Amino acid sequence: MTAITAEQVKKLREQTGAGMMDCKTALTDAQGNFEQATTLLRTRGLASAAKKAGRTTTEGLIGHRLSADRSTGVLVEVNCESDFVARTDDFQGLVDAVLTEIDKAGDAANEAWLKDPNGPVQRRVAATIAKLRENMGVPRFVRYAGKGYVGQYIHLGGKIGVQVELNGVTPALAERPEVESLVKDLAMQIAAQSPQYVSRETVPAAVIDKERSIYRAQLESSRKPAHILDKIVEGKLESFYQQAVLVDQAFIRDDKMTVKTVIAAAAKALGAPITVARFARLRVGETA
Q1: Are 64 and 144 found together in one domain?
Q2: Is residue 218 part of a domain?
Q3: In a domain, 175, yes or no
Q4: Among 25, 51, 241, 255, whose Cα sits 20 to 30 Å from the Cα of 194?
Q5: CATH number of the domain where residue 68 is located
């Protein structure tokens, strides 16, 4: 039998919102596998797909850089051990230096490049560790370049960073304040509501199948007719879309509207087929 530690139980509880004993039981049943334990908790009605790890275990900042023409944007997570160090000039200088290295590398910047111990990022991290005597790391970055109009939003003093890329924005439209307003609203929506997908079409079939199987497992003891169960499952799936899919979410500025409606209204006003190509949301410590 796999030994389950208090730290594992605590982490699962933070990720799912379920009770401590329920988390311990699920981890035991899943032999320590977090994904299986989360599925078990949801099947047992003890956790929701919408509950995420709101608390973080590391400190640091989300660095951000946006080109003047909005064609290129970079977000990068740089971690340290304490908030005190995160607020120092030396650490913030490291964040800026990492952004510069990503800019210089351009399309060559990838995960292998980032993790290379002899590469420019790791050398800069090592030098700052030696100076500040605190462990640091750069676990990930997101770079969008040359495919659309990019916008960003930074929340909680650099603890959350969002990047959004729009399709359909011509150079002339890029000068319009309505475009800047739309991309800011979308980025704030993503920061607040943490969607996982742009549209229903981008949700992997395996994810939909898994959601359906969980909903059916939750209803196993209900003894309802099959056609009624099908309707309930599809209703639960609709709720999943409204939580996980950006364009299906209720708009944070007016919950009587969906994000899809907001984008459509902006596109009509601009006279162009504006759509969301992709987005990224980074929160300090969520990968720990």
Answers
A1: yes
A2: no
A3: yes
A4: 25
A5: 3.30.479.20
Contact predicate 73/65, CB 8 Å = yes
Asked if residue 171 is part of any domain, the answer here is yes
What is the per-residue DSSP string for 5-56? PHHHHHHHHHHH---HHHHHHHHHHTTT-HHHHHHHHHHTTS--TT----S-
Query: Where would I find the beta strands (DSSP E) of the chain?
Result: 59-66, 72-80, 137-145, 149-155, 160-167, 250-251, 254-258, 275-283
Amino acid at residue number 276: V
Tokens of 175: 């000068």
pLDDT tens digits for range 237-283: 999 999 999 999 999 999 999 999 999 999 999 999 999 999 999 99
Tokens 């609203």 locate to: 185
Q: Is residue 240 part of a domain?
A: no
- Looking at the structure, tell me whether residues 35 and 78 fall in a common domain: no
Q: Say how many domains are in the chain.
A: 2
Q: How far apart are CA 212 and CA 5, in angstroms?
A: 31
Name the DSSP letter for residue 257.
E
> Is the pTM value of this prediction over 0.70?
yes
